[in-house]
Amino acid sequence: MVIPHQLPDLAAPQPVLPSRLAVGKYHLLLERSETGGVLRLVGRDGLERIELAITDDGPVLRLCTGLAVVVDGELALTADQLSLHARRALRLTSDEQVDIRSGGDVALRANDDVKLNGERIDLNC
After folding, report:
1. Residue 4, Cα to own-chain centre: how many angstroms?
2. pLDDT at residue 1, rounded to an integer
3. Strand-by-strand arrangement of the 48-55 sheet
4. How confident is residue 15, by pLDDT bands cut at 50, 70 and 90?
5. For an engineered disulfide with 29, which of 25, 40, 65, 91 has Cβ 3.0 to 4.6 Å away?
6. Contact criterion met (CB below 8 Å) for 32 and 15
7. Phi, then psi, of 49 in degrees rounded to 5
8. How far is CA 119 from the centre of its chain?
9. Phi, psi of 88 (to 5 degrees)
10. What is the DSSP letter of 112?
11. E strands along 1-125, which residues?
């Protein structure tokens, strides 16, 4: 008697079992839960480097160390809303032109001095 192979019911709760895979000097840890799961990259020292959590609101990527992104071509970010927050300092630099445009109001607020430095500062042009 042949029993047909049955695929698991993906809607049913899956067992919560961690999985570990050695990748060079790191380990990939996968922890499943009934609501999603977490994928972690952990070093031999036990420090977490990267965490990818799958939540009801979507994936959340947490980088536990620094990140450098180097792109030879163009890099574009597009979103309904984009927020940048730095805990200590924020620097925007360019080797050439900087162009900031808004289809609406622009608000600039500082708790201290605001300094504009340039050869010419053109206002309302």
Report:
1. 43
2. 46
3. 19-23, 26-33, 36-43, 48-55, 58-63
4. low
5. 40
6. yes
7. -100, -45
8. 38
9. -115, -50
10. S
11. 19-23, 26-33, 36-43, 48-55, 58-63
Q: Within 10 A of 61 (CB to CB), how many other CB atoms are there?
A: 10
19 has which bridge partners?
A: 30
Query: Would you state the structure tokens that stand for residue 102, as one six-digit string?
Result: 């808004």
Distance CA 81, CA 96 (A): 26
Shortest CA distance to 49 belongs to which of 24, 32, 67?
67
Is residue 47 within 8 A of residue 40, CB to CB? The reply is no
What confidence score (pLDDT) does residue 111 get? Answer: 93
Cβ–Cβ < 8 Å for 3, 16: no
Mean pLDDT of 98-115: 93
